[in-house]
Amino acid sequence: MREQPVGVFDSGLGGLTVVRELTRTMPGEDIIYLGDTARVPYGSKSLETVRRFSLECANFLLRFSPKLIVVACNTATAAAIEILREHCPVEVVDVIGPGASLAVERTDKSIGVIATEATIASGAYQRAIAAIDPNRKVMAQACPLLVPIVEEGRDENDPIVRAALMDYLRELQRFRPGAMILGCTHYPLLKDAIGQVMGPDVALISSAHGAAIDAQRRMGLSGLLSSRSYGGRLRCFSTDNPQRFARLGERFGARQINEVEHVSPEELESALREVLAAQSQAVEDR
């Protein structure tokens, strides 16, 4: 079981920033990654749709008998983490709880959160912070344009990036938080630009880093850490345009991606239907 892979899924390429942190933290772990690029972004979709997509992605990863699954998508975490934990026979790590914990540890002042529309609307970060410190002030801001901007390959010096950040972060600048959570896995690629806008006194917290720490802790407690100290392999799947995924993936994951395998959304949908039907039949047969 120790040498089984870690499963990771995200709505697109952004979850590769979580893979990057997992590899830095545990370089001997094999990782299976699914990017649902045919249906990105999740952040503008309904909670019901995100839950369905998330179950389909997790169900696909279970084919590879992972020892743990990481939900690398903040939107999927906010919408579906409890359902995913009920569905999966292995531990499921999210990005929101660990990110909130890091922010509370980092500052005793107020906390800012930037994320997609769906994540902010869910209130998931606000609840996670309140569970740790009910008196902590929190300001949350949706930044819907940042994901497509990053996926277009625009860098931090692009004037469009700077203009979007100045607009989105204006109220957070006035709020003056002690720490700000980058509540989307795409946002670490804009960390320097965000830091310049917010100033040096605001600690920027990566939810990807928090998830990697939590995954390491959970596997350590369960005796599931790989015996290898380096050389973990990465196998990638994408629901659309594997060539583009491979080309852009290196920027997100900080490692070369030589091959990306294609799995269609229809295959994900039908596989989950089969599993749910089998579960329903088993209940009826009891």
Nutshell version of this structure?
With 286 residues, the protein is of the alpha/beta class. The chain has helices at 16-25, 47-61, 74-87, 96-106, 117-122, 124-132, 146-151, 159-168, 170-175, 191-198, 207-221, 242-253, 265-285; strands at 6-10, 31-35, 68-71, 91-93, 111-115, 138-142, 179-182, 203-206, 234-238, 260-262.
Describe this structure as you would to a colleague.
This protein is an alpha/beta fold. It folds into two domains: 6-94 and 209-285, Rossmann fold; 97-208, Rossmann fold (3-Layer(aba) Sandwich). It contains 13 helices and ten strands. It has helices at 16-25, 47-61, 74-87, 96-106, 117-122, 124-132, 146-151, 159-168, 170-175, 191-198, 207-221, 242-253, 265-285, and strands at 6-10, 31-35, 68-71, 91-93, 111-115, 138-142, 179-182, 203-206, 234-238, 260-262. A six-stranded parallel β-sheet has the order 4-3-1-2-9-10, with helices on both faces. A four-stranded parallel β-sheet has the order 6-5-7-8, sandwiched between helices. Helix 1 (16-25) packs across helix 11 (207-221). It starts with 5 loop residues before the first strand and ends with a helix.
